[in-house]
Design a protein that fits this description.
Blueprint lengths: L4 H12 L4 H13 L1 H20 L7 H17 L35 H36 L31 E7 L5 E8 L5 E5 L8 E8 L7 E5 L5 E4 L7 H6 L1 E8 L14 E4 L1 E4 L7
Antiparallel strand pairs: 1-2, 1-9, 2-3, 3-6, 4-5, 4-7, 7-8
Helix pairs in contact: 1-3, 1-5, 2-3, 3-5
Length: 299
């Protein structure tokens, strides 16, 4: 139901407790017969209840009660009945001269003040509504300021919920540390190198580059690892016909064995030794030397 401004103002003033006895009785009667109006009053009580929660109770000073009692006693003395003197009898109206015309007295005009009273009440209620709206706006501004700067002063129900924000920070991946590099020149009796063997210390992969040797027809070059830590030479595979041959077979050996071993090349039947052992004496041999230490950045 749509209510007038007067009804809304009455509901707000009822929630504030500023109505007189007759107006409170009127509001309570309307609440008893109209559930929607009762809900309107309760809504105003809920809105204005925030003001009570934000303002703590204050105990008045003892002098305030003394002043109230003194004012009540003074008002009672002023309302004592007054004794009025007896009024003199009304004088007889003078008779008009014979030559003057007689004018009849105008009847009294009744003044209707009902509109004035209604307008006064409406203005008072509109001012009350404006005051309530101003108070609500000020209370909301104050509550927002308290929520931002001093949320601990508010009741638990009015405190803002904590906001949790997850921030993902991406750190750059650490740059890989260059591993050490080893090289062996496989040559015959101090002559020109026939093969260059390169070993990566981290991956244990090796690469053989052919620089000055060509296998005979029907023969193959085979690379061997010779170490006093092993009972016999271990084959690292046949060197291919291209300029570069790369294999990861050194992963089965520890770094000490790899760095201290002697590397040799033999001439074997096509496809490599059929027995897993050298079938001829090594013709090219060499040992690894470190050419790039670990951790040296590339240029």
């Amino acid at each position: 139901m749509a209510y007038s401004e007067d009804h809304i103002a009455l509901a707000a003033e009822y929630a504030l407790g500023t109505l007189d006895a007759d107006e409170r009785a009127q509001v309570e009667t309307m609440m008893a017969v109209d559930t929607e109006y009762s809900a309107l009053v309760h809504a105003w009580e809920y809105r204005l209840g925030v003001l009570n929660q934000m303002v703590g109770s204050v105990e008045p000073r003892p002098i305030v009660w003394e002043n109230i009692k003194a004012a009540i006693g003074h008002s009672t003395e002023q309302q004592a009945p007054l004794t009025l003197p007896e009024a003199a009898p009304p004088a007889e109206p003078a008779s008009p001269p014979a030559d003057e015309p007689v004018v009849a007295a105008a009847p009294p005009v009744a003044v209707d003040n009902s509109n004035v009273i209604q307008l006064t009440g409406r203005v008072r209620r509109l001012r009350s509504v404006a005051s309530i709206a101003t108070a609500l706006a000020a209370a909301l501004v104050a509550m927002l300021a308290v929520q931002v700067y001093r949320p601990e002063l508010l009741p638990e129900a009015l405190r803002p919920k904590p906001r949790i924000q997850t921030v993902e920070v991406k750190t750059p991946a650490p740059s890989a540390v260059p591993s050490a590099q080893y090289v062996a020149l496989l040559q015959r009796d101090g002559g020109s190198p026939a093969f260059i063997l390169t070993v990566d210390a981290a991956s244990k992969n090796f690469t053989v580059r052919k620089v000055g040797a060509d296998a005979e027809s029907g023969k193959s070059f085979e690379l061997w690892l010779i170490s006093d830590q092993l009972p016999q030479p271990r084959s690292l595979g046949v060197i291919g016909g291209s300029d570069f041959t790369a294999r990861p077979v050194l992963a089965d050996y520890d770094a000490g064995t790899i760095n201290a071993a002697t590397y040799a090349v033999t001439v074997e039947p096509a496809g490599g030794s059929p027995t897993g052992k050298p079938t001829s004496a090594p013709i090219y041999v060499g040992k690894l030397i470190e050419t790039v230490p670990a951790g040296t950045p590339p240029r």
